[in-house]
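Model the whole thing, not chain by chain.
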Amino acid sequence: MAGAPPLSPPAGTRAWLLSPEPASRWQARLGRFYLGWRAFSKNPLAVLGLGIVLLLVLVAIFANLIAPYSPIVGGDLRTERLLPPSAAHLFGTDDLARDIFSRVVYGSRTTLWVVMLVAIIATPIGLLMGTVAGYLGGWVDTVLMRITDIFLAFPRLILALAFVAALGPGIDNAIIAIAITSWPPYARIARAETLMIRNSDFIAAVKLQGASTPRIILGHVVPLCLSSLIVRVTLDMAGIILTAAGLGFLGLGAQPPMPEWGAMVATGRNYLIDQWWVAAMPGAAIFVVSLGFNLLGDGLRDVLDPKAAR
Amino acid sequence: MASATLNQGGGHVGALRLFLTRAIKFGLVLATTLLGLVAVTFFIGRIVPIDPVLAVVGDRAPPAVYDRARKELGLDRPLIEQFVIYVKKAATGDFGNSVLTTNPVMSDILTTFPATLELATLGTLIGTLIGIPLGVLAAVKRGSWIDQLVRLLGLVGYSVPIFWLGLMGLLLFYAKLGWVEGPGRLDVTYSYMYTPVTNIVLLDTLMQGQMDAFWNALSHIALPACLLGYFSLAYISRMTRSFMLNELAQEYVIAARVKGLSEMRVIWRHALRNAAVPLVTVIALSYANLLEGSVLTETVFAWPGLGQYITNSLQNADMNAVLGGTLVIGAVFVLLNLVSDILYHLLDPRTR
Amino acid sequence: MRHMSKLLMSAAVVGLMATSFSAVRAATPPDTLVEAWQIDDVISLDPAEIFEFSSSEIAGNTYERLINYDPKDVSKIFGEVAESWTVSPDGKTFTFKIRPGKKFNSGNPLTAEDVVFSLQRAVILDKSPAFIIGQFGLTKDNAKDKIKLAGPMEVSVELDKAYAPTFVLYCMTSTVASVVDKKLLLQNEKDGDMGYAWLKTHYAGSGPYAIRDWKANEVIVLERNPNYEKKTPLARVIIRHIKETATQRLLLEKGDVDIARNLNPEELAAVAKNPDIKVENGPKGTIYYLGLNQKNPNLAKPEVREAMKWLVDYAAITDTIMKNKGEVHQSFLPKGFLGELNENPYKLDVAKAKELLAKAGLKDGFTVTMDTRSTPEITGIAQAIQQTMAQAGIKIEIIPGDSKQTLTKYRARQHDIYIGNWGADYQDPNTNADTFAANDDNSDTAKAKPLAWRNAWDPGPLTAKTRAAVLEPDAAKRAAMYKELQKAVLADGPFVTFLQQIEVIALRKNVDGVIIGPSFDMNSVAQATKK
């Protein structure tokens, strides 16, 4: 996403954006975007969500400037272990005398990395499976949808767990495992959209012009499926973060000492009752970020997919 | 008259044929899905870099013992052969023995699955009973603070790590306030006061009139069930709201209002009845999710359910148990889909 | 609106229902001891197969062994089922006289025939712990000739060599030498399996408690054995499998369990402040170590091996992460064994380590991986070691994994560094010497795979010395031999041993008489009471 446009552009710009007769495709697109933004910005919760996600991105980029301590090397085990939150350590320290605030800050990089990669891997798979199945129909559809069903019928966390076990632990393998378990719903959505588009006039027109099947799918069907898929993926982000945290909680996922929020909660649960901050801080970070993605996704759906929002 | 009867008869035959083709199609779907499940799980299980023999003999076994156990497990045969043997046996309902518990996998599933079922059913019940009214309320009062509150409540439910909330819940309601009983299904005192028949503790104790044990079990299940209920509520209330908005905008609602029917009647009798059709699918889906997604809750609450059983077996490369458990959950998922399909057809006036 | 308030009402009622029925909170029953414990390692209840920590403790409380030792002073060996014993002049035949008048839980009398059957059965079934008695030259084929009735109440065992008597006797104290009920097992025999399939989940012993029920990963129930001479004060012991330590603590503080077995140092410190709870401990025969795979060219350099021993902050680990749960220990024999060596020459010394690394041509350090079980304890220690090693430029990448997964890799010699623990198999020093200091064949296809093999280390002359030590009849000389072996491994071996485990349990104040022995099979609740 490009930087958010200013809240209210000068009157002249607004008129240009809202012009009923846009001079160029570019202007029309910007205008559509502006209209969407106006609808979106009316929803305070959605704006809050966007704010949280932007904050996540900023914190991840500037982690080395924000974090006061190293996220990996801890202090003196004897004197600086499990300290409660204070001015020196905003979120306290953990069992290895590391500053939890710094770890949470650096952990945002891990979280962002997970979310981005899963989206980049899972969305194209789902999109391709769904559009190809929907557009071609027949036995291709049957086979592809059967495969989708098999993966849908799997207990998701257990499948991810099995994949991580098979691929070997580590955050990258956890990402692959989560991606493998997240694409089936996308395929379903893409297929449903494709079925609606397939028989429309303009596809018939493109066909008449002699466009090849791959070209029709990639050039015309896929773009039309994108918006509802983006909404779905955004709404899924929270689920992805939670699944990654769940893998961490069960002892797989990120490699120590890498700061990963889920693994941090997992360590913290051993100190839950007396040193509550060890689990509470990363837990709260997970919660806030997934809430942010949920609010954002919810708001996006209202704008991009008004039918579903009702 | 005659032709009408004939027509009707033809209708019956048609319905029967339709039913039969449906049944065959469903059987095929079920079979291929399950076979796919077995294949995927089986091959993942075999490439997992965990030595299944370790679970049988432990780390300190001398080499001769180790080799013998490996042979007994059939691990020295080619992969494909192992797979064929497994599928043949599974088709007759024999999932083999679990290495970890030494019992037949089927009997393990029969004791662990009811525990999961009990929890998920109660969770769905709570989620439905509270979620639907909340969703309706939010739709009726669209845009009001109630709507926003329900929305936020739902989104929070989507966003909070369940294991974290579970631990916090235990800390507050069990340790600090003492309102509910702690982890596990039953206090030790009551564990041997009843005979397990269905393995659903609430049912067993109730049927055998062990009221003390029943209340104890209810108090144990309250917290995890409420927790799962909250997650199901988050989903159900959102979907209810959206279906209701859809219905409330329909012409028949406006017509009913014009006719002067009371608002109550319009909302609860007419709109909700129609919204209930897609809601059935939503509830079934959320039920399936609770059934398969309760691994973490089961871990936190020391609940001896199927999710924990599979996870545990997976970590020990106890593949018979993992395969059996996954198959059962997969089958339940497919069956729930079917049931919701049937209900959809029964409820939907257009298909009736 | 009216319907709205109704709705809120019903929602409130459901909410209340879910929370208000706090049943009468009964503490655990006065005649029952309830333990919260991670018992997911139990795979069998058959003493011929039991080799895991939890199950050996269960066996220790439910079966009787031929001979036993005093948990407070390991050197005091006494007869349990045996009344007395003699060794033949050539040192090869041991004859045990059986105590008369004993009875099994089933009501069958315990006779010399049961003892013969039990020992033969353990050797013939040949499960994991069978080697403990099999290593004296007893095999499937000769067990029936070598283990015999020598009189109406006498049993003789013939060995292939004149082993040190202490070695033989200590091995006979292990759970694999438990006496099982021959008659009962033969009644439940299937296809000549000597009752193996049945005993995996049942009970046929004569110990203080009888096993009434076992549900894997859920619960074990022990019940007073009325036929045992010294009746247990408690009628029942219930062991609940509770994985989460935080949960164990909650249950203990609430009084829903009487003992919590797996609390971490912070939880122990916290419950110690509770006036209703006390904490007891005892050292265990388990040591924690790093295994350095000699297939890794860097780790194979002697200077690097030594440098790593100077790069662990031993004291900091036992003072913090493992506080109360371990003490610094650097040699391979745990305290409490014959020949124990209480020298801990190494401490954190980065300068010295750097010097050694420079000598090895690794001035700038190097990178290695460390396979780490993802339990909080091991992960914590691993990260602490990772930090101190980094100070000398050794970069450790931690590879987390489930215990079976890391073990699989370790046993295939595919690791760089493995961090783990090792528990003694039996109470004789040979148990650890055999695995840390001996390696008969270092090739990939070797038959025996001791820890030295797993780390691809050829101990050279130490192997022969280990073999000689088991034949030394004089206990003092024998002890000296083990001291020498330990010093050699301490100086040059591929093991960075850093601590010995202390087992700590937290109990409700009203529980007394729980014994924490030097090994799990010596942990006893037989005389535990509740006030």
